[in-house]
Amino acid sequence: MRIESGDMRFEHIRKVLKMSAGDEIFAGEENGKLFICRLIETNDAFELEPLREVEQKCPRNLTLAVAYARPVIARRILFESACMGVKNLIFYPATKGESSYSLSSLYAGNEWKSCLIRGAQQACATSIPDFHTVSSLAEALKLADQIAPASKKLAADPYEATCDIWDIDAPESGISLFMGSERGFAESERHALRAAGCELVRLSSRILRTDTAVICALAHCLRS
C-alpha cells in the first residue's frame, strides 16, 4: 500500500498523527482485511508494510432506510452509519420532505462515498455500507425485504409509536430501521409501514433532529 504526498491521508499521518518512518499504523482496503502496518518513507510518499492482520467483527445485519435530508444532515448520517457499522443504507424521498434534497450533488457525485469512507476510517474498520437510492418509501420497503428478508422492521415515529425502542430486543437476524423526513412520516407512509409489518417505536420523549435520531436508533440496534 502506498500513499503519495498531496493525499490528505499523507498529510494527516505526518502533521496530525506526527508519525514517521518505522512507526506502526492501522491500514486496510475497502471491505477487505485490516492490518497493522509499518510506515516506510520514500520520496514524498509513505509505503505501508503489512505486519499482521487485525481481526474485525462483522457488522450486525442492519439496514437503515432514511428520507433524503438537507445535505449537512445527510453527510452526518452517512458518516455515522459507516462509523457505527450499518450494513445497508437506503435513501428515499419522503412525502413531507423537500424534493430538492434528492437533487443534491452529495448523491449525484462521489461525495456520499467519501462520507462513508471517513466514517469507516474513524471506526478503524474496512467495511463500507452498501449504498442505495430509491424513488419512494414503497421501493425502500421492497428493497429492504430483498436484501434483509429475515430482519425485524422498525420505524421511528414519536407521534404514533406503540412502544419505546429500548423495549425491543435486537434479534440476531437483524433489523431494518426506517426513519422519516425532518417533518416526520405522513399518514400514508405510516399506513404503508404498518402494512409491511413495521412496528412504530419511540426513541425519546423529545423531538430529535434527524441525524440525532438516527444515531440514537443505531446505538440501540447495534448494541451487542
Features:
224 residues; alpha/beta; 7-stranded parallel β-sheet; 11 strands; 26% strand; elongated
Largest beta-sheet characterization? 7 strands, parallel
Estimated radius of gyration = 20 Å
* Terminal Cα span: 33 Å
Low-confidence stretches: none
The helical percent reads 25-40%
Question: How many alpha or pi helices?
Answer: 7
Task: Please list the strands of the largest sheet in the order they lie side by side.
Answer: 7-6-5-10-8-11-9
Give me the count of strands. 11
Percent of residues in beta strands? 25-35%
Briefly note the structural class of the backbone: alpha/beta
- SSE succession: EHEEEEHEHHEHEEEHEH
Shape: elongated
**What is the residue-mean pLDDT, rounded to a whole number?**
92
Describe this structure in words.
This protein is an alpha/beta fold and 224 residues long. Helix content is 32%, strand content 26%. The protein is built from 7 helices and 11 strands. It has helices at 8-16, 71-84, 105-108, 111-122, 137-147, 187-195, 210-221, and strands at residues 2-4, 24-28, 34-42, 45-54, 62-67, 88-92, 130-133, 152-156, 163-164, 175-179, 199-202. Strands 7-6-5-10-8-11-9 form a 7-stranded parallel β-sheet, with helices on both faces. Helix 2 crosses helix 4 and helix 2 runs parallel beside helix 7 (210-221). It is elongated. It starts with a strand and ends with a helix. The model has no long low-confidence stretch (mean pLDDT 92).
